[in-house]
């Protein structure tokens, strides 16, 4: 028996009951508040979301628009293939995460099990290619080359292949008409990622998990127009997933067609002649190194002089864009991106940078005239030029006496431009400049260098003008390294580092004279030089180069033409332009390119040219050849290919032969001319929106011209030996080695 009074025990019980009642009341109040929040305040939102849980979407991908050449010939279109795909979501629900199913599938398709498994793994920083870079919820294509028998096996044995489908699907095809490739211009596709879907969710063109997007070239630049809009059908389903009705349906809108200014026939010749020029260069011995030229990369641009439209653009090495269709294999990916691949995905016409060599001299000439040096004055073309005991030699020590600037362009006399640059450097204050005019650097910027041309292709690079601002920034970024190396290293490289440490921020005399002939730290791209020479041809207008010509809706009712646009004019007066124009005509008739244009019908089709041979420290010379007529501008470059006229000259001549139908006797055969005048109109559009393509034959045989394939062949035929156009060698110019070693 407890000694506690009865009233004490009762009081405790009462308190406990009160506490319990308060807790129960609080819980009921909280629950009631939450119910009010869910049912009253946010009731509409959750009602809608609940309804969505009973809606299933079926997506029908839109047919991607075609990419056509200027005559309507497909460069990229679509074809129906049997595509076998795997649902990663379904495979992950299986006990062994789909390994058995994928192995069984590999046996049916005749593929290696490890290759099939690699296709469905997700890409991340540690996962090697191939892997799936798209959404993990989207069906992943295993192959787009399944046979009818393979597809039937999969569909009839569905219990053995859960999560696997085999369906006829429209896939991208890069047709390669007439033997053309056009890979870097066209680009390629790959699946959309979840990040891209989220980013585009509220944009002008939202993405679906089934979409493929352009990754480079035209496919990327005009992706929104080409992609169209996928069709989405929404079905109402019950909680067991059974369809109980159709909620809403949005029809698929096919992508628009993009008509380009590319002519597939000219493109095929440009690609073939560039490739052949590189092969021929590898047969020639470099006199400086004693070994054959490597000719490891090259590019060529064929452009309409009066509009900036690109008729052909080739980059070498190249690749087959069809390798990306249906997912790229590990072997192909390595061949395209590995360190030994030489990066064929790179479009060297807009992304390849190199010193321009003597084709830069049209800029130097304009700068000299604008700085007050008369075009027709006499300038001494000596065999060498001395600055403070440092000798800068003319190429092969040639001397032409007193000549004007026009003749200096014709024979590509380095010492004339050395002298002009040195005199202007002195006027600007030499090593102690005070408000320098910097005509030579200012003019290069006015010509459009060190900035994008505005071409409608992604990832164009800017090149470089090594002016005072650039030199200062470059010195600030590298001075610590130079100073450290200069203190410890007594070798030649160490001495150069020490000099750069002490004076690398200054515009030295050697920098200026090297710059005047397109050497030193100057970098340009083929598309920049094509834009400049086209502007000289048309009277001075710098056009934005364009590949796209029109965007045409799938029904043919909407046509958006892409008009030529200008981003400025060259900084010369009409008389200076005419003088330079006449000098460049002289290059083709009696100057450094004359041996490549022997027999050319100059009276009917006036030809203008400039050769260039640029030196790169530690490498063989870069070949440049810049040319134009009233209709077209062609610029070709070959890395480690030799001289401009020697390596690139024959190929450029043959492209012109194909354009104008010039035979080996210099006569014009209009029936053989591929494009004697630029294509002005658009292809014919039918009432149903289809675009009528003009037929294209197999690639014509290589147009032959009077230009021979090699300098030695020219000499054996009795023609004159080629005038050389390059700058002095590094051994002859210590300053150049200093500049290019940085």
Automatic annotation (TrEMBL):
Transmembrane segments: 17-37
Topology class, membrane: Single-pass membrane protein
Region (Disordered): 674-742
GO molecular function, one term: penicillin binding
Subcellular location: Cell membrane; Membrane
Compositionally biased region (Low complexity): 704-723
Main location: membrane
NCBIfam families according to UniProt: pbp2_mrdA
Protein name from the UniProt record: Penicillin-binding protein 2
Species of origin: Streptomyces cinnamoneus
């Amino acid at each position: 028996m407890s000694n506690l009074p009865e009233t004490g025990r009762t009081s405790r019980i009462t308190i406990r009951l009160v506490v319990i009642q308060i807790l129960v009341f609080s819980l009921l109040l909280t629950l009631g508040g939450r119910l009010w929040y869910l049912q009253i305040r946010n009731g509409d939102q959750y009602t809608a979301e609940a309804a969505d849980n009973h809606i299933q979407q079926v997506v029908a991908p839109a047919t991607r628009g075609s990419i056509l050449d200027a005559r309507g010939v497909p460069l990229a279109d679509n074809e129906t293939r049997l595509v076998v795909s795997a649902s990663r979501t379904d495979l992950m629900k299986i006990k062994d995460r789909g390994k058995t199913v994928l192995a069984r599938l590999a046996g049916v398709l005749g593929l290696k099990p490890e290759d099939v498994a690699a296709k469905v793994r997700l890409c991340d920083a540690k996962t090697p290619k191939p892997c799936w870079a798209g959404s993990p919820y989207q069906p992943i294509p295993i192959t787009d080359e399944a046979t009818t028998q393979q597809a039937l096996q999969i569909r009839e044995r569905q219990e053995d292949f859960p999560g696997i489908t085999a369906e006829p699907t429209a896939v991208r095809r890069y047709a390669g008409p007439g033997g053309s490739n056009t890979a870097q211009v066209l680009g390629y596709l790959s699946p959309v990622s979840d990040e891209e879907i989220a980013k585009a969710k509220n944009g002008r063109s939202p993405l679906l998990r089934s979409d493929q997007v352009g990754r480079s070239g035209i496919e990327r630049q005009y992706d929104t127009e080409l992609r169209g809009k996928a069709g989405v059908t929404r079905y109402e389903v019950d909680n067991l997933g059974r369809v109980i009705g159709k909620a809403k349906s949005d029809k698929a809108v096919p992508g628009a067609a993009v008509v380009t200014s590319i002519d597939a026939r000219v493109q095929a010749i440009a690609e073939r002649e560039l490739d052949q020029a590189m092969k021929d260069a590898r047969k020639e011995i470099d006199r400086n190194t004693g070994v054959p030229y490597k000719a490891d990369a090259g590019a060529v641009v064929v452009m309409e002089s009066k509009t900036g439209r690109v008729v052909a653009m080739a980059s070498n090495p190249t690749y087959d864009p069809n390798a990306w269709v249906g997912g790229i294999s590990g072997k192909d990916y390595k061949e395209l991106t590995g360190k030994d691949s030489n990066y064929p995905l790179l479009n060297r016409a807009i992304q390849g940078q190199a010193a321009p060599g003597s084709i830069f001299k049209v800029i130097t000439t304009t700068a000299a005239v604008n700085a007050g040096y008369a075009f027709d004055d006499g300038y001494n073309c000596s065999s060498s030029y001395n600055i403070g005991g440092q000798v800068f030699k003319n190429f092969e020590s040639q001397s032409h006496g007193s000549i004007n600037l026009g003749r200096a362009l014709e024979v590509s006399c380095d010492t004339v431009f050395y002298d002009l640059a040195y005199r202007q450097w002195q006027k600007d204050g030499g090593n102690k400049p005070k408000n320098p005019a910097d005509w030579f650097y200012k003019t290069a910027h006015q010509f459009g260098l060190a900035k994008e041309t505005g071409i409608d292709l992604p990832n164009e690079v800017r090149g470089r003008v090594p002016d005072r601002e650039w030199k200062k920034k470059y010195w600030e970024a590298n001075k610590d390294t130079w100073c450290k190396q200069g203190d410890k290293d007594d070798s030649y490289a160490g001495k150069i580092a020490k000099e750069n440490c002490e004076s690398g921020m200054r515009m030295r005399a050697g920098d200026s004279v090297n710059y005047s002939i397109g050497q030193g730290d100057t970098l340009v791209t083929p598309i920049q030089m094509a834009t400049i020479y086209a502007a000289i041809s048309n009277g001075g207008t710098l056009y934005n180069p364009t590949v796209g010509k029109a965007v045409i809706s799938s029904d043919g009712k909407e046509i958006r033409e892409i008009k030529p646009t200008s981003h400025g004019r060259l900084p010369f007066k009409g008389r200076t332009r005419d003088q330079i124009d006449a000098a460049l005509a002289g290059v083709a008739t009696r100057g450094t390119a004359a041996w490549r244009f022997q027999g050319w019908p100059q009276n009917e089709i006036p030809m203008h040219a400039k050769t260039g041979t640029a030196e790169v420290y530690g490498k063989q010379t870069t070949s440049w050849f810049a040319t134009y007529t009233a209709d077209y501008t062609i610029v070709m470059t070959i890395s480690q290919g030799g001289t401009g006229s020697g390596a690139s000259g024959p190929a450029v001549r043959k492209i012109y032969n194909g354009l104008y139908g010039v035979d080996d006797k210099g006569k014009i055969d209009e029936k053989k001319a591929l494009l004697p005048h630029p294509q002005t109109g658009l292809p014919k559009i039918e009432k149903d929106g289809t675009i009528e393509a003009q037929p294209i034959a197999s690639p014509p045989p290589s147009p032959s011209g009077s230009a021979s394939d090699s300098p030695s062949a020219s000499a054996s035929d009795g023609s004159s030996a080629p005038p050389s156009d390059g700058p002095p060698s590094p051994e002859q110019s210590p300053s150049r080695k200093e500049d290019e070693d940085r």
